[in-house]
Amino acid sequence: MAISVVIPAYQRREFLHEAWSSVEGSGGPGLREIVVIKDFEDPALDSHASDRLTSIAYGSRNYGGTIARAVRACRGNVVAFLEDDDRFGPTKIARLSAVFAADSHVAFYHNDYREIDRSGAPLAASSQRRAIDRRMSGRALERYEREEKVSRFDRLCDSVPSAHLSCVAFGRRSLEPVLPYLERVPIGVDFFLFFAGLASDGTLIIDPEQLTDYRRHSGNSSRALSFNPAWYRELVTGSRAMADATRAMLVELGRRDLLPRLEAELAAHAVYVATAAPAPERRDVARALAGMLREPISFRGIERRALFLRAGLFVAEPSWAARIVRPRPTPLPGPPPRSV
Q1: Average confidence score pLDDT of the chain
Q2: pTM score, two decimals?
């Protein structure tokens, strides 16, 4: 078993060395290499380039294209991902080695995560974290074969496997066929990869072990997009491109049966995007709500129903709803935050 870890970084140096060190600290016989792909020079890191560490200079702002470029440079038969502001836990690589060695047909793997703050200290659980804990309580590692990926979709999604790229690992032979489509995904790479895992013939694994530290800070909160019109436009156009690429990928792989699930997930995403606008308009929010109503399975889970009700507030009374559910804007330096 040979594991390659891809660490992408765009215009952000602050946490990169900590991410790299966490992989080295989690390493073992299964770790083949670390591939760092970034749009800046880092002499301290670049000086360590070796057979075990590859540093790639790549200036594209297209996140999926960046990830695809790094994957093509990997030599392992398993590719794990770690965003530059997150960390691997000390047993992450060993766990990946055990899981993929036990089943050579594993295509997609997603572990659970802990939340940390900017300094790396544990955070009090967010509402999303508490909801996941309630759903996953008492569950062990679960395997989903081809038919089960659809028939047990709701249970599969309890851990939110379509989010948090730093929790994802992929079998190389299942990943390579979708790279041309991944290159067209500017945001939502984690969402795309989840559907690529669903579409593959391989096993999909949900691991309840919290093996990733997910860092919450101002630069990764998607809600911040609602206070910057330029970033919001990128969210809208990027979401459309991601949706188009994911649809095309499913059709190419002969998995049209997954299109209803995709449309349901995209309907719920459209509601979020519409309400995240700097000045949400009733027409746009109402259109997104109608899309969600056309896809009844998009109401899976209490969080989705709460999202629908929140959007309904914007339709009923936008200014009143905005005062209740949206915080005051704060300046956010640096590049557009990643989606979560």
Answers
A1: 89
A2: 0.91
